Amino acid sequence: MDKSQKKWVYASLGISAIILALMVGSTFNEETLTYLAHMNIFFLMIALGLRFVSFALWALRIQKMSLSLGYQVPFSHCYNMVVANLLAGALTPGQAGGEPVRIHELYKAKMSVGDATAVVIMERVLDAIMLVALSVCSLIIMGSVVWTLSSGIIFVIFFSLFLLIFFILLLLYAVRYPEPAKRMIMRFLHWIEIKMKKPSVQKIISKTDVEFDNFCSGINAFARHGKSGFVWGSVCTILFWFSEFVVASVILMGLGLPPAVSESMLAQIIIALVSMIPLTPGASGVAELSAASLYALFVPTAALGIFILLWRLIMFYLNIVFGFIATMFIFKREITT
Q1: DSSP state of 313
Q2: What's the whole-model pTM score?
Q3: pLDDT digits (tens, 9 = 90+) for 16-65
Q4: Helix, strand counts (H, E) of the chain
Q5: For 39, left (φ over 0), alpha (ψ -120 to 50), or beta?
Q6: Would you call 231 helix, strand, or coil by DSSP?
């Protein structure tokens, strides 16, 4: 691990740990001890088990989308790549580090770079469509709750929605008009190169030139004979996000609180939107503060800090542990082949 990677690790863990410590310290009182004394470990184990279910659904999505393009990728290989990608995602802004891991592992499974890139990007598209649809539905159904939030959170919600919709439209434009889209992207990168005057930008430009062509060829393959991949991918995406979002409600039940399913789902949708903005590595600090603002509306103050601590332990810190173990399997494979 080089110095830049260590910097991200320290930043990600440090920011999250400081925010969590402040939250727990500021909300801890005698009532908190009552919640801890009556904590139901069974529900916490269910919450942890749901993480492995979500990994399996993610792996199944990759396997089925790859199969639709004519590639037989073992489920075990997909599962390990999904878990390994959690480590890179947890330590990079916007969780962007996970995509190269998945593309690399699909390439190792005998997929072409273009098809592997197409599968991974289409995963992102399905996730974006799912979050946009859920966000719009939530704003319609629970708009009165949303408008009671602070102006800062409301701004971030709509800004995140704008970015997701822009991302979807940009990809649709690239599929429909690949040459104009490529020229537009390359002009933008050349403009950045002129402004920044760094040699590293030229490497990005060269890589983008190649990867864009790979992406277009992969998307064309999906359009020709990968339609079943969209269907399977959509089903798995719905189940995946449901399994992710319901974890918080199960943790609340573990603390002896009502699951507050609808309110918690709304909070999880907003947190997922905010976490996609590349502000901090692994959304450290951002996720904790967003969760505190949202769950404070219906979770007692005495239980709030402990709840967020347990939620981040299962949804973030264990990602790093599991991701490290899966990455070691990949590293061992690489050095023995």
Answers
A1: I
A2: 0.85
A3: 888 889 888 988 988 999 999 889 999 999 999 999 999 999 999 999 99
A4: 15, 0
A5: beta
A6: helix
